[in-house]
Amino acid sequence: MKITDKRSRVEKAAQEVKDLVTELKSVREVFKPFKPQTKAIRFDYLTRSSEIRVFLKIPEGLRRKTGGKVEIPVFSGYSLHEIMDLETFNILPLRYELSKGKWIFKANSFPDSERYLISLRGTVSEDFLNSWVKLTVPSTPKSEDTRDRYWIHAALKDASVLQEIHEVFSVDRVTVGVNVGVQRLFSSAIPKEVEKRWKATREFLAAAEGHDRDWIRKRYVYRAAVKRARITPVDFTNLINELISGDFFKPFVTVDDPFHLGRIEGDKHFETIPERVKVEIHTNLDLENPAAEGNLCFERTAYDETVKSRIDELMPEEKERQRKKNGEPIFLFHLLLVLEMKNLLTRITECKRKGWLNNIQVLGKSPGNLTPSAPIPQVHLRLCEKGLYVDFTRFL
Amino acid sequence: MSTISDRLRIIKEYIAPWALPKEEVPFHLILDQTSRYDEVRLKLPPNILLKDMFNVGEYKQIDDEIFVNSFKTHGFFGCIIAYDDIFEETHVSRIIEINFYYKGKKVHSKSLKANFYRPRLEFVEGPEEIMISDKVEIEKLLKFKIRVMGFGRVGIKIEGTTGEQFNVSSEPLFREIVRRIATAYRQNNQSESKKSSTEDTSEDNGGKRPARIDSDWIMERTSEYWDRIQEGQYPEDLGDELLIEFRNWLKDPTNAEKIREVISVQIEDIILDSLLFYSERFPADKVDLKFGKPSVEIDIVGDILKMRYRYWDAHENEYSPLEINVSVDDVRKRKKQIDIPVETEWIIEPYYFEEGV
Which of A292, A383, B91, B160 could crosslink B307 through cysteines, CB 3.0-4.6 Å? Predict the structure, then answer.
């Protein structure tokens, strides 16, 4: 029989909890003359900071007593972040002197109000937070039809810290903002034509470097490939940078309650194509909800399609070639427009917004006078190098 | 699975729905504040490892049972567990039994099921024997069909040898850089006064270099590769090019400037390779050829080609590789070392989870 006595990891952080509570108590002492009421205490996992909001009453009489000065002693670990006038809800400019361990405000720099909300910020060690809150996300998503799903679990490893703070300070709520970057793999496909072009470039360069007898042929293949797919690695790198920017990525990522999405950014340290995207997730944990669970979903298919269409935009010749080869696919768009002429402008605007038609141009008069009862006109569309042209001259 | 007790009520329960071997699975229970319990005993099934606990003070482990008597607050309790080994099946599940005690008497029992999944590669078809002749198209020699089963993306490295040792390849970008330095070394040695390959490249691109990559990134990489070369790291699959003489040439401080120049000038061209490498890297859904498109070197010694598909999951667990032996019949007039590309057709089998996941 094997018997082992164990202490959960959180025990090791006990001293830090004690220090934290002592520190918070000293904050309360400092504000004693102002009848402080602690309104909120919040810990932020990502910035490794804690914020205390204290409600203070600074009556006129007290200001006179201190000789026109409002003095707040400086205490370790925290700095003054913000003072809000609770009567006007204005943030006061923080003009103070630091003297003999006290923040000294000139009383006349305070407005006439008596009630203020002071926000203090301090740092909390990473070790402490890690031993206090734990966030778990799997390395591998579950693939569901069009999307990838990751479960998310966040929990307090020691809820007694909150309880202690809650009891000592009689605050309504002590929250821990779990705010952690999740780096996950979101890869996308490169179109075959682009691949061919790079392959030809590589072979051509290799042939040029050595003494390849096949050099002339490779040069021809290279030139032909360049002509078909005018996308260069630079274009592609720029495009990828755009595609992994938070703004572009955000519509494809969702999280369940009680989690919220924060910033999204691509991994900057990439060889060529960033493989990981960092997603920040927030949630609040408190005594009632010491644990939270949910899902993060990545709309893989929609993202892939958007990426492909953006690459297509960089390859106008390829588009033209495909159009010829596939028997004027633009005709489908033509039919669609004929059937739904009423919605033409709405649709074009939508297409432009989605980035499908970047260089759309309308030739001739705009069909602004179209009404539901108007006869269905013919629309002619032309696809050329600079984008899609809609030609209204034929029917107006 | 649970016995009902009016003294104990579970408000919320959660266990993470899936994990790979050795990956963390959190679970927790939130109980009504009036619930009466002063001890929780946790029964761990085979291969389940307790990694951490939520809201618990000291606890004791006797064999596979965990005894918890100290709770940080009442009504919330949880654990992080993991499967401690690699298993053979693509899915295994384990039941975690949680028993609540009050004054030495069991008052409630709860079971939670933990599900673990893994990927698996299976051989479908491929040649048993290949014949290398002077006329053979080597691209068509080594073609395999491999089935990707189970859960999750797999990182795959294909290796082959006709000798005893499998070649260890480094990542393509670094390999390519060292290869080019080796070329510069050879040119230097032969005192050739011909134009450098980079100038050739520029001309044929109409004076435009093919890639303009962030200069900070290039400098960062240059110094990284320089450091690695100085530390004596070389891609071992470069073969005979890396002679002792070449290594010494690399280490000679008077050549430092030339080497750095090769790295920073050539890296942009190599980006092209790298982009191609990326597109070759993900040939199919779920498949990640981490070390690029493979080829095997057939040496004149040995008539059996031992191939292996090594693979990892996203948690970096390495599974037993898929091993394939191919007989080699070399009928060439002049036998010399030959590089044969390996073509793999990936058959991706969709994976279905247990219902409710």
Answer: B160
Q: Is B58–A6 a contact, with Cβ atoms under 8 angstroms apart? A: yes
What is the DSSP track for A71-138?
EEE--TTEEEEEEEETTTTEEPP--EEEETTEEEEEGGGS-S--EEEEEEEEE--HHHHHHHEEEE--
Q: Does B54 touch chain A (CB under 8 A)?
A: yes
In a domain, A396, yes or no: no
Min Cα distance B130 → chain A (Å) is: 27
Return all residues near A291 (Cβ < 8 A) that are at least 6 apart.
A153, A154, A155, A156, A285, B14, B28, B30, B54, B76, B78
Kindly state the tokens that stand for A326.
Answer: 């596939």
Residue (of A291, A295, A293, A237) closest to A268 by Cα position: A237
pLDDT digits (tens, 9 = 90+) for B200-232: 333 333 333 333 445 555 566 666 766 776 666
Residue stretches of chain B with pLDDT short of 50: 1-4, 191-213, 239, 243
Residue of A nearest to B282 (CA): A189
B211 touches chain A (CB under 8 A): yes
Rounded to a whole number, what is the distance in Å from the CA of B305 to chain A's nearest CA? 28
| Mean pLDDT for the stretch of residues A63-86 | 68
Residue A40 lies in a domain: no
Question: Domains of chain B (ranges plus CATH)?
Answer: 10-117 (2.60.40.740), 119-169+291-357 (2.60.40), 170-280 (no CATH)
- Same-domain pairing of A23 and A136: no
**Overall pTM > 0.90:** no
Is residue B74 less than 8 Å (CB to CB) from chain A?
Answer: no
Q: What is the pLDDT of residues B251-307, one digit of tens each?
A: 677 777 666 666 656 655 555 555 556 566 667 677 777 666 666 666 665 688 888
- Nearest-Cα distance to chain A for B302, in Å, is 31
CB pairs under 8 A between A and B: 167
Tell me, yes or no, whether A204 and A252 share the same domain: no
Bridge partner residues of B201 (DSSP) = none
Q: Cβ contacts (< 8 Å) between A232 and chain B: which residues?
A: 210-211
